[in-house]
Write a structure and sequence with these properties.
With 96 residues, this protein is an alpha+beta fold. It has 3 helices and 5 strands; from the N terminus they run ααβββββα. A 3-stranded antiparallel beta sheet has the order 1-2-5. A two-stranded antiparallel sheet has the order 3-4.
Length: 96
């Protein structure tokens, strides 16, 4: 697999491809993350062409166990963020 890219490097790539300076690119990425978070918290679905669809999904309660003690426990239900990638990205991924 590839290497992990750091936030600063990501901002540099955004600035290079968008024509924004690095501070503007960083602000744009932070604003996008804030908007996505706010919309998901409200239960909205976000569709971004060429990227994918983000939504909040209910993960129901389930049974589990403590791996150390093997004691049975119930893992509580929660709402989790979900990302479904666009066909553009899926097709761009190499096959193993």
């Amino acid at each position: 697999m590839g290497n992990q890219i750091k936030s600063k490097d990501f901002h540099v790539r955004i600035s290079q491809q968008s024509g924004l300076d690095q501070k503007q690119a960083e602000a744009a990425v932070k604003a996008m993350a804030n908007v996505i978070r706010e919309e998901l918290v409200q239960g909205n679905t976000i569709r971004i062409a060429g990227l994918g669809t983000m939504s909040a999904r209910l993960r129901p309660a389930r049974k589990g166990f403590n791996p150390t003690t093997r004691e049975a426990l119930t893992i509580p239900a929660r709402i989790a963020a979900h990302m479904s990638w666009s066909e553009t990205i899926k097709k761009a991924m190499p096959t193993p």
